[in-house]
Amino acid sequence: MAVVGAIHGDERAGALIIEELRESFVPDGEECVALVIGNPRALEKGTRNTPTGSDLNRVFGKKDTGVGYEESRGALLRQMLGSVKRLLDIHQTHCDTPPLAVTRLDGAHLKLVAQLNLKTAVVGVDKIYRDSMLSDWVDERGGIGITIESGRADTEEAFQVGYEAALRMLRKDWAAVGVVRVFDVDHLIRAPFTNGRWSRPVGNGTEVEKGEVLVQSGERQLKSPGKGVLLLPHEGVEEGGVQAVFALDRGWVNPDELAAGEGGDS
């Protein structure tokens, strides 16, 4: 098993969790556990990436051809984590968010999400990130990779949620399996104009109605493409940039029923 924190250097709770686990968690004698700080150079600078680098959580795809620090760090992480069967990659956001998992839509993945006591899962992220995340790489190797957004960066909640989820996995101290609310990524909403302002406060999981005015600047408006939820909303976006991710609310899903429908236990 592995827990990774601070893939992005401005998400410091992940690094604090790794440091705390190194002090407090003692694995069983024959158990192999990796506790890894993902991007130590960016963490030292307090930036998402190194100054001239790329996003470390986008270098694990099949077409990794870069030569910068993040690419070399990604190669080292692949070498270190090649035998991992379960991986928890801990992130935080810079908007208001409930704790949520980013994962695959299948019984095994959603069951682990529920066992970690997380109530919300985002699926279908490959539609926009093309299987380039660390958790995707673990999945492709036959393991179960879960990325979690533990809360807003630099909050105590973000530390506590991530720490408790990591301890549950490492100790196999599972929560009872219950239903998980699933948001299914549909597409990116791009800004049709520069520096628009949200018409109301939004965060991860904000519900929107079709045709609702989301962003405006003077007489110009960006309307919701449908009934769904927003993920990772951004303020002050330039024209053509990503304003938010639009997802469909698939409701509450029972992981055990999903696994049974797939023809096997998870």
What does this structure look like?
It is a single chain. By secondary structure, the protein is an alpha/beta fold. The chain is 27% helix and 27% strand. It has 2 domains: 2-182, Aminopeptidase, CATH 3.40.630; 185-249, RNA polymerase II/Efflux pump adaptor protein, barrel-sandwich hybrid domain (OB fold (Dihydrolipoamide Acetyltransferase, E2P)). Helix 1 (13-24) packs across helix 7. It is globular and about 65 Å long. The mean pLDDT is 93.
- Count of helix runs: 8
Give me the CATH fold name of the largest domain. Aminopeptidase
CATH superfamily of the largest domain: Zn peptidases
Task: Summarize the biggest pleated sheet.
Answer: 10 strands, mixed
Q: What does the radius of gyration come to?
A: 19 Å
Task: Give the overall shape, derived from the CA principal axes.
Answer: globular
Supply the key terms.
266 residues, globular, Aminopeptidase, 10-stranded mixed sheet, alpha/beta, OB fold (Dihydrolipoamide Acetyltransferase, E2P)
Please specify the SSE layout and strand pairing.
Blueprint: E1 2-5, H1 13-24, E2 34-37, H2 40-45, H3 69-80, E3 86-93, E4 100-102, H4 107-115, E5 120-123, H5 126-129, H6 134-140, E6 144-152, H7 156-171, E7 180-190, E8 197-198, E9 206-208, E10 213-217, E11 220-223, E12 228-231, E13 242-253, H8 255-261
Parallel strand pairs: 1-2, 1-3, 3-6, 4-5, 5-7
Antiparallel strand pairs: 4-6, 7-13, 8-10, 9-12, 10-11, 12-13
